[in-house]
Every structure is written in structure tokens, then in C-alpha cells.
Amino acid sequence: MNPAIPCISLTEALKAAGYDTAVLTSADFAFDRQIRFLKRRQIDFMADRNDMPGHQGAWENAWGIDERVTTRAVLAWIEQQRAAHPDRPFFAAYNMAAGHHPYEYPGSPSGLWLDGDGETTAQRATLRFADDRLREIVDGLTRLKLRDSTLVAIVSDHGPGSGRAGMGRVRDASIYEGSVHVPLVLSGPQLASTGGAVTLPTGHIDLAPTVLGLLGIEPPATMKGRDLTRDSSGRVVILATRPPLSQVGVRAGPWKLVHWDETGVTELFDVARDPDERDDVSRSHADLTTTLEAIGHRWQTHSRNLIENYAAIMATSGRRCSATPARR
Predict the structure, then answer these.
(1) What is the mean pLDDT of residues 278-294?
(2) Which of 121, 144, 7 is nearest to 74 (CA)?
(3) Domain 1-150: CATH class, spelled out
(4) Which of 153, 219, 159, 185 is nearest to 8 (CA)?
(5) Which of 173, 197, 226, 233 is most buried, by CB atoms within 10 Å?
């Protein structure tokens, strides 16, 4: 929406704390205008499918290139960084393209539009391929004698789809559980003093401040998420999509509200009792529905204002858009 928005990103906060930074993706930075956002974010090395070292002649499909090429490039950058700056910490983000429908990877059947059991089989095979790439990263860190000191975070941007009756295979465009319930796994010595697994509802907005917290870096004031190592209290989680569905949702404990902007329809689910979101209980819980709907509406209004006037709004609260985090 606003790639130049003056919020402080994870890479900027880490760069200010003395880290070397890299972002590598098997996909294309042109997708969703990522390049316009990333080029302003203090990233020392960037590469996508078009200029990834070793990409010439590699297998590719519509989503991206062979993940094995990107895996090698990630480990090569880390090794080069350590050789050049052995005492300087590093941050590398690796964005996989594998895992998207139609679930292709080198050696898999290609060009098939899958559904039902065929899709499930192909999806699992693709995830095994992706898992092998993660193993290569971890094995590479071990070979470089970095595994025992490196924090590794594995997260998905969205799930495989809604799987709700009547909606077909609506994938990342919806805010039903099949799209928004995703894994987040953190591994490293930095977790030794934390309280273990986080089981309450959280969101991607919490990832950057949590990573910074684990590294002993105070998250910038402009980050709206929370450091889950310090704040694990319950709070509402906002869910939203872009068009064409344009849904806005609010998760509060077991309750989940889904509002459709185009039609004005609002649904309420108790996902603890009804994890498949089949039973809309908005009529029998009208007061709760009204409360959560108001929260979602306030978030929409506030977000639109922030996108257009971020720096001015932060200034009125006494905060600056500055990437100068303090060490704890």
C-alpha cells in the first residue's frame, strides 16, 4: 500500500545494532511490489530468481526457481560474511517459493491442476522437498560451526486454503483457519531462558519484536507487535485480506469474527469448539459480535490513517521513526 512508509523494519533494527543483513528469495521481488519496500530497508545483499547466484539453467516454474539453488546461495553468503567479518552478527531471510499450488518441485509431475486426494499427496511431497532444504540450512550452519549460536525462525505466510464447504479451494485470500493458522517455530540457545511454547493466538506482527527480544535488542517504538518472550498475555488478534474477498476478522481467545466488506455479512465462530468454522453463532452472541465488529472497524480506520500519515501520527505521540534500538 505504501512501500515508503517510515516504519522500522526488522532488517533496519538489526542493521542499527551492528548486523550484516541479507534477503534471498526463490521467487520474484517484483511480486506485490516487494522491491519498492525492501530497497529502503538497510539490506546488504538481496537476490531473487532473476539474479540468484547459480540460477542460470536451473529448474523453475511460475512461482520461482529450484530451492536448492537458493539454499546454496544463503549458505554461501553466510560463509562469505563470516570470513569477512568474523566478529559481526548476521541476519539472513530465506523466502521459499515451493509450497504453492500446484505443488511442483524438481522431478515432480508438472502442469497439473490438482484437487482432492491428488492435491493432498502433491502437497505433502512438496513439503518434504521444502523440509529437506531446511535441513540443508541447518546442516550448513553446523558445518560452519554456527548452529549452537544461531537463532533460526521458520514461519509460513499463509496456509494451504480455507477448506470450507461452499468456498472451494480458496487459498491465501481468506481469513478462515485453513489460510491463517500457520506454523511458527523458533530454535536456538536464545530460547533457553524463555517459558517454552506460546499457545495463545498471535500474529505475524509479533514476529519481528519477538526475534529482536530474543537477541537482546529493544524493539523500535514504531513496531505494533509484541515481544512474546516478555508479553504472553491474551489480546485480540486482527486478521485481514486484500481484495477480492476483503475480509476483516478479530480473534479474541476462542472467539473469531469474520466480516465481509462487500456484503456486510458478519460471522462468529467458537474455534475451540468448532475448529472447522461451520457453525456461525453471531445471532446467539449478538453483544459479543457487536463488540468485536467495532474493534475490526476501528483497526481499519486507524490503519488507513497510518498508511497515509505515519510519520505525523508517530510525532504527535512523541515517537520518532528512527532505527536506533537500544541493547538490553
Answers:
(1) 97
(2) 144
(3) alpha beta
(4) 219
(5) 226
